[in-house]
Amino acid sequence: MIIRYLYEFIQHQDDLPIKLFVNSVKHIHFHWHKEIEIIYVLQGTVVMYTDQRQYTLRQDDIIVINSMSVHKIERTNEDNVLLTLQFGPEWLDTSAFIHCNSSTQTEENRSSYDVIRHYLAKMVYEINKKASGFRSYTLGCLQMLCGHLLRYFASGTNEAVEEDTKSYDYKRLNRVLEYIDQHYNQKISLQTMADQEHLSLHYFSHFFSDKIGIPFQKYLTLVRLEKAQVELANTAKSITEIALDCGFANVKLFNKYFKEKYNSTPSAYRESFALTDLPDPDRKPLTYEESSSGDYYETDTIQAMSSLYRYLHLHTDEGIESRPVSSVAGTISAAASTSVNVMVQANEQGAPFDKHWNVVTTAGRAVEGLREDWRCQFSGMQRRFPFQYIRFHGIFNDEMMVYSEEADGTPIYNWSYVDKLYDYLLQQGVRPFVELGFMPSLLRRSNETVFWWKGCISPPKEQAKWDALIQAFVRHCLNRYGWDEVSRWYFEVWNEPDLSGVCWAGTKEEYFAFYESTTQAIKSISPELKVGGPALGYGSLWNDTWAEEFLAHCSDRQVPLDFFSFHVYSEYPFQKEENDRLTTIMPPSFYMESIERLKAKLSVTSYRDVELFMTEWNFSLYDRNLVHDTAFMAPFVIYHALTTLGTMKGLAFWSFTDVFEESIVPSSHFYGGFGLMNRDGLRKPSYYAFELLHRLGDQIIARGDGYFATRHSDGSVQLLLYHYVHVDQLFASGDWSELSDMNRYAVFEEKGNKRFHIRLEGLVGSYKMTSYLLDREHGSVFDEWVRLGTPQFLTEEELHYLDARSGPVMNTRMIHAEQGWQQEVTLSPHGVMLLTFARQF
């Protein structure tokens, strides 16, 4: 069986005894099973062999495979995506034969097929949203579906089920098929198989044709062709060798059958396969001109469910059934609420903690920091919740005018733009976290680039010239800003060099040598300067030994590593052999699991105690993910900031602004950019998550499911509440069909409100309680833009309007807490609330 599963919803899970999955089929041999199977074609076409006939199923087609019905599926020249539902025959309460195949439907019975699509859509929706009672709803849909099949599609009795009491015929058929699969390259005749099964030639011929639907000799030829197809694609054997290996009498006969089956000669098939599917070992990394976006990764998403979800709203015999309102309009879910008891002792001894989320902020690239709009956004943010460091790409990009040469090759260094940028940053109270990259074009060994702005990812053609540049740069910074300042900086050698061909156009061994030489160049000026890296991509953290080899190189060569930096995003970290896998969003625990995985790698080395920096993180590594603008991002930021406390020195969100040009900037004001602010400076919910985190005290006094309580040394208390709701299983598995410019909340699990029953003890005297509420109805600028009417190009008046309505809604009142304080707070999904209690004198 050759089949690529994209994702599976449920498989015999608890009290839901069904299988429901989406898959892409290349080839499934003849097989049978007791379960009834319903296949719905989401995309593309497939060829189905069942009930002694062959059918071509196209998008939107449905077919029911009866219990013990022998069937086979093949792909066509189109890719396909199928939804498959399997359930036991007992759900039909009978041994009825179901004749349901929409490829043969007429206009008269189309509505009957639409009802099947409707129930399938509802089952998928319920299982993915996982709202309260979803199992019961799903089983109810299954029962309605089975009733509909019995009423409108039953056609006699399923004789295969009745005859299966002995199941001897199927055991015999299984033996025959297994024998063919193992001996296809030998001479096999109908008489051979009849003798082996101790049957007459006539009886065996009819037995095989009745079960499979095609004559024995034709089936044998199909098996041989399938085996030959694999050899053509994966071996260098000659056509003649393959023909003989696969049991054909001669190459002429092989050519004839192959062309009839695949509409191509074997040699033409091999050539086309090599052109489209086999990697070129000499292929150079993509330049921006060759790639579709210039991004780090090509995100592979599908819109498969859009065809099925059309049937969520359908007029059935039972009346009009509508899709849940929360999916369409994004209103508050009707799912069941959850409750959390919050007990806080204000006078309890607290535990100190380091706020690692405000150590480092990030931006796209250096030259953007010379722009007025970038600076306006940064200075405003720095006033409200200051960071200690800022990291960005491209300090040595050609656009920064750093490096040129005399006619004889003598280097010329120009620090004018670097000085303008660094002077400004230091005036704002933030230090550079210096990413050393990318390569000046005059120093590059080859021409590979990344991003729209074409950062040169090549190693240097002369390491000595690169080292001289680094030394000149560090000396200039020391001379301009002084030892006391620069000694506090971090120097990070390159960005994601483990992504060979994406951010580094050399081998890993070349990067190890590059890191060592660069580090020595800096340490030769002063051993006390902090140098590290490698800004590791998280795919390598999970799928290979790149980090271990880098650490071993540094240890063996005694190369300094003052800090270790790495990146994490929510997408599944693809292994190298999984290039065709769809984008997958990992569960919320993935960030913490990645940190623990890295720490485990470090723990067995001499670098176990180095400072750790996650120098990039966000929900998605795709800078056009529409979720980035939504209210979801506030609890997302808070959840990960709080769950990773104490694990590292710095947690650097990527990035602070949508003044960011890795790809061509879209015209939309809300296009899903990485930033805490959009390009107009409108502050997103993620921005206010950092502002609320900044208001927390310096001691932890309580924490739990969705809450975090702190205290300041002045006696004030802060209680942060948040309702994190993750994306649903459908979106997490790569189907983005429910995500659109204006409807961005249908992709989340359907959760109810979260009620916090708060009891605060230990407050003595009078306090001013201030609440800050941020959710979809209060302060989410994207949602305000939708309510405004989604204007495509915002006027100054509209910008001011949206700016005034972004941010938490604030309320204050006085409380006297001699006997303690109690209150119930309800948060809708994606909601956040901060309660502060300031002592009054």
Low-confidence stretches: 1-14, 275-300, 322-333
Strand residue percentage: 15-25%
Number of helices: 25
Give the number of DSSP strands: 34
Q: What's the gyration radius in Å?
A: 32 Å
Distance between the termini: 76 Å
Largest sheet: 8 strands, antiparallel
Label the overall shape: globular
- Give the rounded overall mean pLDDT: 87
Name the helicity range: 25-40%
| Coarse structural class | alpha+beta
Plain-language structure description:
- The protein is globular.
- Helix 1 (110-129) packs antiparallel against helix 2 (134-153).
- The strands form eight sheets. Strands 1, 2, 3, 4, 5, 6, 7 and 8 form an eight-stranded antiparallel sheet that branches.
- Strand 22 (490-493), helix 17 (508-523) and strand 23 (530-536) form a beta-alpha-beta unit.
- It is an alpha+beta fold and 841 residues long.
- It contains 25 helices and 34 strands.
- The longest helix has 20 residues, at 110-129.
- The N and C termini lie far apart (76 Å).
- Residues 1-14, 275-300 and 322-333 have low confidence and may be disordered.
